[in-house]
Amino acid sequence: MAKLYFQYSTMNAGKSTLLLQAAHNYRERGMETYLITAQFDNRAGEGRIASRIGIGERADTFGENEDLFAKTQARLEKSQVACIFIDEAQFLSKAQVWQLARVVDDLGVPVMAYGLRLDFQGNLFEGSAALLALADEMREVRTICHCGRKATMVVRKAEDGTVLTDGAQVEIGGNERYVSLCRRHWREETGDLRSPAPRP
Description:
200 residues, 6-stranded parallel sheet, 23% strand, metal-binding, nucleotide-binding, ATP-binding
C-alpha cells in the first residue's frame, strides 16, 4: 500500500544522499523512479539533486504554485513509476503537500519527501509543518552538533561569520551560510540563554 513518507533533519545530515541511494535501490531492481526538487534551489545546477559527498542526479523541478498532482499524472501518462522522491520538501506549500497526499491515496504511488524541519529562527517551514501533519510515516535523519549532541537546529551566518537572527525564511546556501547545532548551542549562538520569566 502506498504511503507518504517524510524524512527530516537539520542541515548537512545527508538527506540528499539517502534520497539518491533509495532511488538507486529501486532502479537496481528494475523499477522506475521520479525525482523532483525545488526549482529555485540551483546550487547543484538547474534540476539536479546532489549530495555533499559528490553523487548527483538529474531531477524534475517544482515551482511555487505548481500543481504536483497534475504534474505527477502527466508523468505517469509517459510511463509508470514505482516511487516519487521529493528533495528540499520544506519548500513545498501546504497545498502541494495535500496534492502529494492525493498522489498516494488516489494514484497509489508512494511519495518519499526529504527536507528540513526548522528554519534558522527555529520555526517550522510551511511544507515541513504540513508533512508532519499528513505523512503516514516520518523519520528523523540525525546529525551532530560540534559538542557531540544531536543537532536539531541551524543558525544562519553572515559573510563575516556573525550569526543572523533576522531575515527572510528562505535563503539558499550551504556550509558557508548554515551551521547545525543542538538546541543549547543554537540558543547560545542566537543570544537566547535567558531564564524563563517566573509565572505570576
